[in-house]
């Protein structure tokens, strides 16, 4: 339980950093937008924590992430996010947004070690 706030704080900090970098790249900074982004991250914290816990509940090592891949695809389906599958056996590639600039990329490993 003690780890949950730190994980949520880390996600919020990363989203805040991404928003700040985008704003700096365009020569503007909108505090209200940054606050909205941070609030959005905090609202999604319980869901994100739940997904992380489900991934680590049944850890799968590299190239054997069949259940993890299915979980990721199910969550993407639930969110209505299109994706390509499979990539390198169990990989999933999803694209969110309009495709116009600015672009933020996120790459994440799906293998999980037991906690």
From TrEMBL:
Matching InterPro entries: Amidohydrolase
Keywords tagged on the record: Signal
Any GO molecular function: hydrolase activity
Residues in the signal sequence: 1-25
Superkingdom to which the source organism belongs: Eukaryota
Alphabetized PANTHER family for the sequence: IAA-AMINO ACID HYDROLASE ILR1-LIKE 3, PEPTIDASE M20 FAMILY MEMBER
Name of the protein this chain belongs to: Peptidase M20 dimerisation domain-containing protein
Source organism per UniProt: Eucalyptus grandis (Flooded gum)
């Amino acid at each position: 339980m003690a780890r949950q706030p730190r994980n949520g704080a880390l996600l919020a900090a990363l989203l805040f950093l991404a928003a700040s970098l985008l704003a700096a790249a365009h020569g503007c900074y909108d505090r209200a937008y940054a606050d909205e982004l941070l609030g959005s991250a905090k609202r999604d914290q319980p869901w994100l924590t739940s997904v992380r816990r489900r991934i680590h509940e049944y850890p799968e090592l590299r190239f054997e992430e069949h259940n993890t891949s299915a979980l990721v695809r199910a969550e993407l389906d639930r969110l209505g996010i299109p994706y390509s599958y499979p990539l390198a056996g169990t990989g999933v590639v999803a694209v969110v947004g309009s495709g116009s600039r600015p672009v933020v990329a996120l790459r994440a490993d799906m293998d999980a070690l037991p906690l």
